[in-house]
Amino acid sequence: MKILVVGSGAREHALCWRLNLSPNVSDIWVADGNSGTAQVASNMPVSPEDVDGLASLASQLQADLVVVGPEQPLVNGLVDRLGEMGIPAFGPSASAAQLEGSKSFARQVMTDAGVPGPDYRVFRDTAAALEFLGGHSSPVVIKADGLAAGKGVALCSGPEEAVLAVKGCMDDRIFGAAGETIVMEEWLRGTEVSVFAFCDGERLSAPVAACDYKQLGDGDQGPNTGGMGSFSPPPFWNDKLSEQVCRTILEPTVARMAEIGSPYKGMLYAGLMLTRDGPKVLEFNCRFGDPETQVILPLLESDPVEVMQACISGGLAQSPVRWGNRAHVGVVMVSGGYPGAYETGKEITGIDGHCQSAEMPGLDTDCFIFHAGAKPVTDEPGDTRTMTSGGRVLTVVGCGQSIGEARDVAYKRVKQIHFEDAGYRLDIGDLSEGSRSG
Ligand code: AMP
Ligand code: GLY
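Above: the input record for the complex with adenosine monophosphate. Below: its predicted structure, written as tokens.
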């Protein structure tokens, strides 16, 4: 089978790597990829946001399956467009992707389905939002309704911060049209976990769980980022919790989406807070998570192509999904200055030997290096160097019998990799008491 993967991050490198291990796959292209995907697939110069360009690329390549990484093309209707052209694509339709594309839509679905979440209110004008805040003293979370590249959430411990967040979103439009409507939520406390399940519109696979680290600094300090690391499976994740999450959250959501005529097909990603009153939904995403994918795909024992095809055709019941339980810890290496301004074009050394096409490791390898903001530069024929090209540069994943062992493997490998001003957290996968502030 010929596969086109859409996206350019470490998540997409991990997808290409895992798809390439499938006996069903003959060719993989990726739009537009990075230096890592170039080792297992052919990079094509089409932007992951260019729905027209991607549709014609898929048709030109006669792709048998398109696998979509990021949310924007899903929300913009790439899967619908490919479907009209007769090209099977893994991911939800535009209407089902509204679970991520509109936070107010997602909250309404959850309310209608009886899915536990924080108390919330939706506001479409500033005056009403500010009036509500006037009579409200508890900490709140203010969210731009639409997609804001992961930046549209403000955790406000006091009313002054909340007022600034409302005005920034609704009056100053710092997130553009995405912030015309806001969702104001109760600030939930507890342990966060990301839960992923394949979905065929009706049924869900067994879920898999991972934890990610959003803040730049150790101990969850500093600015929010696209994720500084992750680990899976979390030691607290067990059959009882998994069953509870399926019964109270995933299944009713999927049933409600089918009921309203937007059956959900693809990867359903629930960001949860495990509170004293049980698991509650922080958000739904309509895709694989980043950096969680880098630690969960090595756990996928089933054939990814068969699973994705089953999601598209509604046959998940016939293709049960199996996950392993070996521990994986992924450390994200970033450019100095990220998530603010940073320089690119720094040479990366010390990355040979893991996840290379010439010696494709199987699922039992001890380490993976997934590339993101990195690109190959050829000065002379035969002399290709890997240079940084973005803020998020690599995810280095270690595997082991325990999270502690996996963490040691990951950091040992990280220390062998060099580029000027490289940054990374030192506490990814550190489960000792007090290592996280949340
Ligand atoms: P989101 O983009 O909705 O995932 O929000 C980003 C992060 O903000 C989440 O991963 C949580 O850490 C935090 N967050 C979102 N909503 C809430 C909430 N209602 N209570 C506490 N934290 C939240
Ligand atoms: N791990 C956060 C995200 O993928 O949105």
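Notes for the reader.
Confidence is low (pLDDT under 50) at residues 356-362.
The longest strand covers residues 221-232.
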